[in-house]
Amino acid sequence: MTIDGLKIKWLANYKTAPEQLKKMAEVKGVISAFNVNIDAVIKITGKTIEKIINDESLDQKQILEDGKKSINSKEDAIRGIVHCFTNGIAEEWLIPNKEMFFWLNENIGYDKMQMGGQGGIVANAMAVCGVDKVYVHCASLPKDQAKLFLDLPNLVTVDEKGNLEQASQIERKSDLPLIHWIIEFNAGDTLTVDGKIFTCPKANRFIATYDPLNFQLHIDDVFAKKMALNEIENDYIILSGYQILANTLEDGTPGISRVDASKKIIEKWCDTSRKPILHLEVASTQDKTIRKYLLDNIAKNIDSVGFNERELIDILEVIDAHELARHCDEKTNSTNLFKGMLRIFSYLNCSRMQLHMFGLYVTLQKSGFKISAEQNRNGMQLAAVVAAAKAGTGSINTSDVLLWAKDREVSERGLSELQNLADLVTGLYGENNLVEDGIFTNGEIDIIAVPTIIIDKPLTLVGMGDTISSISLVGAQ
Q1: DSSP readout, 244-286?
Q2: Which residues of the chain register pLDDT less than 70?
Q3: What span, in angstroms and rounded, lies between the C-alpha atoms of 62 and 118?
Q4: DSSP state of 162
Q5: Cβ atoms of 456 and 391 closer than 8 Å
Q6: Do residues 205 and 93 lie in contact, with contact meaning Cβ atoms separated by under 8 Å?
Q7: Which of 284, 326, 437, 465 is most buried (most C-beta within 10 Å)?
Q8: Percent residues over pLDDT 90 in the chain
Q9: Are 139 and 222 within 8 A, CB to CB?
Q10: What's the whole-number average pLDDT of the chain?
């Protein structure tokens, strides 16, 4: 079939999206845990940095020195910005004390606040898509955090008294904002420090993070107990937030102990007659000890795992598949990545996993899983439509924009990757019709692959993977 013919075929496949969206209202409950924070975004210029340096009489030689990548002083904060500005790179440094948090808040500020953390992004997506009740875990919920939740009655969490209330209406006054400053700068901008002129070679950002609770995977005890009650109908539990754990926390506690603590809580949430589907969004887990422990102690014991290309490669590195990881890194295409999926599938022995790569989503699952191959495909198509709406309009804060992209053609990039995947599957398992209908099954495994809609000039890509994974799963009704 020609490319044009395949586009027409997939346009017909995608016609299920509106009906799939309606079906999401049949989902009684989703728990989204654990990480929620505030992303405070600001565009900063070289002149602004210079003004702060001069106004605060900062030590300019210290700002240009190498040092520990954490913010313990005013000079450290500006040193991090200058380091990323002058090199055109992105880095994230932690703020370990409240004093520097308050100083940044006063001297850097922000242009806008947006929802940060996979838990918060997923909760907003589930709520706007119409899930009957979305329960979101918040380690901290001051007013600035609460107002980033969509103003929807189906999106709830616990208030100061321990009652379940609409998340956007709660203000836990004693809670401190958990802020990730995203400080952006433009290529070509100049900056003078200690008499030296620097030109920013590439537009990028510096992230300064004050998030003492999420960095130790703090779990609100009241919320945890509430979710264990039989009255909570949790059809799905979507887990995230482990990726920011370190092997050793600031207080000396082993990071893996926080994984263990969460596992005990999750077991209580699952001890109901409903038997919810458990999904882990892997995210970019930098600490290799945590990454491996997370795979062995969470991912091996749940239903579903989601990751992107980079995260797949990261997983391969800690399950001793170094050569395959290198191939995927050097040639990041559907065939190499699918080989990686097969290796991870064998290692984890979980029921379902999903890769979201540029242009193509791929789900690999055991045949007989409670979500059929066709349901998976329909959920993935809905996710592709909603993700395209988010990229094209800048947000999915209201239900009227969710199907904005429903009549757009799938990308040629996606179709090309799908064809290559289909050829590989033919060699491994035999003839298939993946290119036209996206489904292959042999009674042991199901392979579902969907070419996606690509927006040429996206207005946002923040939280895209979380949106895709959660809607692909929960939208597969």
Answers
A1: G--SB-TTS-BHHHHHHHHHHHHHHHT-STT-PEEEEE-----
A2: none
A3: 36
A4: S
A5: no
A6: no
A7: 465
A8: 85
A9: no
A10: 95
Task: Name every residue whose Cβ is closer than 8 Å to that of residue 118 and which is 6 or more positions away in sequence.
Answer: 35, 240, 241, 281, 283, 463, 466
Length of the chain (residues): 477
User: What pTM did the predictor assign?
Assistant: 0.90
Q: Which two tokens stand for residue 442?
A: 């042999």
In CATH terms, 3-38+115-175+213-474 corresponds, of 3.40.1190.20, 3.40.50.2300, 3.40.640.10, 3.40.50.300, to 3.40.1190.20
DSSP per-residue string spanning 46-99? HHHHHHHHHHTT--HHHHTS---SB-SSHHHHHHHHHHHHHHT--EEEE--SHH
Q: What is the DSSP string of 377-408?
A: HHHHHHHHHHHHHHHHHS---SGGGTTTTTTS
CA 39 – CA 178 distance, rounded (Å): 9
3-state helix, strand, coil in the chain (%, to 5): 45, 20, 35
Tokens matching residue 53: 């340096």
